[in-house]
Amino acid sequence: MADEHKDIDAVTGTATTGHDWDGIRELNTPLPRWWLWTFYITIVWAIGYWVVYPAWPLLTGSTEGVTAWHARSAVVTDLAELKTQRGPMMDKLSSAALSEIAGSPQLLDFARAQGRVAFADNCAPCHGAGGGGTKGYPNLNDDDWLWGGKLDDIVQTLRFGIRSGHDKARQGNMPPFAGVIKPNEISAVADFARSLSGLPPEKGADLALGKKVFADNCAVCHGPEGKGNRELGSPNLTDKIWLYGSDKATIEQGILNGRGGVMPNWEGRLSEPVIKALAVYVYTFGGGEK
C-alpha cells in the first residue's frame, strides 16, 4: 500500500520522502552503503582509540588507556637515546681545543652539524637563518668583526655576551651626545663620518668642523683615523660596512641617542660543547679570521 502512495519526481523519476517546503520536494536518495560502512568503522575506531590510548580528560589528568602511552614521554625517551648516541662525540668536543676541532675532519663535521641546529634555535631570530644579519644585528658572513673573528674571540662573545649583565661580558657602548655637542656640530661630524668610508657629504657640509668634532669626541673610541677599537667594540668607520645604516639621518640619530645593542650570554644556557660547536659553525660562514 505504501508503494501506491509514493510521490515520484517527474524530472528524475526518483521517489520523494513526502517532505515539501514551498513547493520544493525532497528526493529519497539514501547515502551510499560504502559511505555508511565507513562511517560505522570510524565510530568503532574511535571507541577503540578511547580504550587503548589516553583520551578522556579528568579533573587532574586524563584516562591512561590500556597502553598508557604519552607523546611527551616518547619525546623524552627519544631525546635520551639521541643523547646517548651523541655522548662520545660530545665528550670529545668538550675536551678538545678549538684548534683540534678545526683540524679534525670528524670533529669539524660533527661540530658544524651541532652548531647548525643550535644556531637555528638560538641565533637565527636576530642574525637570520644564514647569518646575514639585519639592521642592528651584525652580518656574520663578512670579515667585519666588532670584537674579533678568531675562534677564541667568537667563543668568548658567545659564552659571556655583549653588555649582557655578565661579569665577563664584553663592554663598551656609544654614549649619547645630545646636549654635549651642538646641532650644527652633529650634522658636521655625521658628514665627516660618512666621508671616512667614501660616502659623499651633503652640499655645504662643513667637513673641517666635522673633523675637529670627531677628533675631540669620537677619536678616543674610533681612533684618529676612524678605524675602530675592538677592545671597546667600536666599529671601523672606513670599511663601508654600517651596522645601523649609512644615511645621514641614521648616523645623526646614533650620535644624538647613542648605541648599545645587547647580545645575551649563553654560558649556563648552552653546554660547553654546544658553545664550541656554535663558534665553529659561525666561523665557517666564511668571515672568520686566522
Give the SSE layout:
Layout: E1 16-21, E2 24-27, H1 33-52, H2 71-95, H3 98-103, H4 105-122, H5 124-127, H6 151-160, H7 183-196, H8 207-217, H9 219-222, H10 248-257, H11 272-283
Antiparallel strand pairs: 1-2
Helix pairs in contact: 2-11, 4-11, 6-11, 7-8, 7-10
Please report the number of helical segments.
11
CATH class of the domain at 73-169 and 263-283: Mainly Alpha
Strand order of the largest sheet: 1-2
State the total count of DSSP E strands: 2
The low-confidence runs, each spanning 5 or more residues with pLDDT under 50, are none
**The named CATH superfamily of the domain at 73-169 and 263-283:** Cytochrome c-like domain
Distance between the termini: 99 Å
What do you see in this structure?
The chain is mainly α and 290 residues long. Among the domains are: 118 residues, Cytochrome c-like domain (Cytochrome Bc1 Complex, Chain D, domain 2, Orthogonal Bundle), CATH 1.10.760; 75 residues, Cytochrome c-like domain (Cytochrome Bc1 Complex, Chain D, domain 2). Helix content is 46%, strand content 3%. The model has no long low-confidence stretch (mean pLDDT 91).
Summarize the structure.
With 290 residues, the chain is mostly helical. Helix content is 46%, strand content 3%.
Record keyword descriptors for this entry.
290 residues, mainly alpha, Cytochrome Bc1 Complex, Chain D, domain 2, elongated
